[in-house]
Design a protein that fits this description.
single chain, 10 strands, 60s Ribosomal Protein L30, Chain: A, four-stranded mixed β-sheet, 10 helices
């Protein structure tokens, strides 16, 4: 293990360096085992015990394994309780085809800044069969170590595109749903099996610029309607509820 290689791995905790290097980190046995077949492996740092006990590597990847001590992995880790394995993958290519929204559901996140929430939403999307997520440029990075861990392996099955969300949505057609406090109850709304579902930031909701592209404003109502409740739902929880209702409608048909 060279000092320069260690420095490189540590630098990937920064979004700026992840984009410059075209690489990201996955840590922990479950996370690595869930993702190792989905991304191009650049390096895998592990203890000899881990390598012997987890024959998950493809033959061509064995040359990328660097056997080292747990203490060395701890020095590179971003986790409070580091594991015995850390993988460095190439960031996947991201060329979004807006016609996807004409054939299936897509989730778009407008300014969701908590990495844990972004990870939870990717996990929920995977559960409900949504394979494409759009992120605005001010969203938390989907490939940060914390987000990758929070996806529980779902990031290996959900494609992520990050960029100018307004421009991406403009190309997706007119079937764009968004959650608003003045929207129509999702349980009474007409929902579709294709299009884009926009979820807003934790504190501000969907921005005005993105909201101008929304063709159907929906609301998750509290129950009962006149009861005193929490001010709002966590965006990860809200996304799960919305996706569940969209899929329920499809099943009921």
């Amino acid at each position: 293990m060279t000092a320069s290689l260690r420095k490189f791995v540590i630098s990937l905790s920064s979004a700026k360096h992840r984009r410059e290097e075209g690489a990201f980190i996955a840590e922990g046995t479950k996370c690595v085992c869930d993702t190792i077949d989905a991304f191009s492996l650049r390096y895998l740092f592990a203890t000899q015990r881990w390598v012997d006990g987890h024959p998950v590597l493809k033959p061509g990847d064995m040359s990328k394994v660097i056997v080292t001590g747990k203490g060395e992995i701890e020095r590179m880790s971003s986790l409070s309780t580091p594991s015995e394995v850390l993988a460095v993958y190439d960031l996947p290519a991201m060329d979004f085809n807006p016609s996807i929204a004409s054939n299936e559901l897509v989730v778009a996140l407008d300014g969701v800044q908590d990495p844990g929430n972004v990870g939870t939403i990717i996990r929920a999307a995977d559960w409900f069969g949504v394979r494409h997520i759009l992120l605005s440029e001010d969203c938390a990075d989907a490939f940060s170590p914390k987000t990758v861990m929070a996806t529980m392996g779902a990031i290996s099955r959900v494609r992520i595109w990050r960029g100018n969300l307004h421009d991406m949505l403009k190309e997706c057609g007119n079937n764009i749903f968004g959650t608003f406090l003045d929207g129509e109850s999702i349980y009474r709304s007409s929902l579709a099996s294709t299009g884009v579902i926009v979820m807003g930031s934790e504190g501000n909701g969907i921005s005005g610029r993105i909201g101008s592209l929304v063709s159907k404003r929906i609301l998750i109502p509290s129950y009962p309607a006149d009861a005193s409740t929490s001010e709002s739902l966590n965006v990860g929880m809200a996304t799960s509820i919305v996706l569940a209702e969209f899929r329920r409608r499809q099943i009921m048909k």
